[in-house]
Amino acid sequence: MENATSTSLVDLDLRGYIRDLPDYPSAGITFRDITPLLVAPQALSAAIEQLAALVPAGTELIAGMEARGFIFGAALAQHMGLGFVPIRKAGKLPPPVKSFTYDLEYGQATVELRDGTVSPGAKVVLLDDVLATGGTAEAGAELLEQVGAEVVRAIFLLELAGLSGRERLAGRAVSTLMVL
Question: How does DSSP classify residue 17?
Fold first, then answer.
């Protein structure tokens, strides 16, 4: 019976749990709302099972990007018996921290992680909910590599087609559960 449940979770189509909100937060943008997936226990469990299937053998840590990468990253790490490390926006973690600043279209942003939370040589999966332009994911990967980690894969619940996120992550293994 346990295998039947596991198989059905792996096969569950999660697209029906993603709500499209046209013209939000501004005209011409379609926001992909994952809230319906989060409130449906079977869908959330299926998402974690499906994400787990993408994690390479030998992975030691899951690094989740703020904020929704925390939701899936912590659940995935717990499910797989791995550690979890949050990558946060600047100023959200107590010192000492390691940081990486990256360029935005109009300015800069910084991501941080607590110094000493990732050992040099650690095999880490970077996880976030959405791959859009790839800027935040690229910054997270660069930060992890800066502290000596090996980013073995970047994993996303969904990828927004046409925004070239994969191009920003060129040379890194990238997996997504769905492309919209």
Answer: G
Which CATH number do you get for residue 165? 3.40.50.2020
Residue 138 falls in the annotated catalytic set: no
Question: Number of structural domains, the chain?
Answer: 1
Instruction: Give me the pLDDT at residue 10, please.
Output: 75
CB–CB of 52/77 below 8 Å? no
- Chain centre distance of CA 16: 20
Annotated catalytic residue within 32, 60, 66, 68: 68
Block residue for tokens 């293994």 = 173
Q: Average pLDDT, stretch 126-145? A: 97
Find the domain containing 85 and state its range.
Answer: 2-179
Q: Cα-flanking dihedrals φ and ψ of residue 121, to 5°?
A: 85, -5
Told to judge if 2 belongs to the known catalytic residues of this protein, a careful annotator would answer: no
Query: How far apart are alpha carbons 63 and 60 in whole angstroms?
Result: 10
pTM higher than 0.70:
yes
